[in-house]
Amino acid sequence: MRHELQRGERLRQLGVDAGKSGHELGPWLRQDGESVTFCTRCDAHVYVRSSEEWIVDESGLSQRSRAPPADPTNPISTAHRAHGNSRSA
To answer: Where are the domains of the chain?
Structure first.
């Protein structure tokens, strides 16, 4: 249980850090101890493997997202957010 709580907090923090660079991370895909997500606005991705030590590859997140922020007046962007396809926290 503790490991899952740590994993959730780690992924949440990665989302917050990515947001500071203009990235919006999509849903996390998970298999066994590995998780991956992609920025919904560019081709940056994050890979996380949890084991004794956390292995995190934040390829592309060190650079600001090349895409402009989502337009809240755009119905497609609004629907995308409403269905939980983007992380905002």
So the answer is: 2-62
Sheet with 34-38, edge to edge strand ranges: 29-31, 34-38, 45-49, 55-57
With beta carbons less than 8 A apart as the criterion, state whether 14 and 46 touch.
Answer: yes
Token pair recorded at residue 86: 């983007």
Q: What is the pLDDT of residues 5-58, one digit of tens each?
A: 888 898 899 889 888 888 888 999 999 889 999 888 888 888 888 776 777 777
Please choose, from the candidates 38, 46, 89, the residue with its C-alpha nearest in 3D space to the C-alpha of residue 67: 38
* Rounded (10°) CA dihedral 65, 71, 75, 79: 50
Cα dihedral 81, 21, 89, 26, rounded to 10, equals 50
Q: Does the predicted model carry a pTM greater than 0.70? A: no
How confident is residue 84, by pLDDT bands cut at 50, 70 and 90?
very low
* CB 45, CB 38: distance < 8 Å: yes
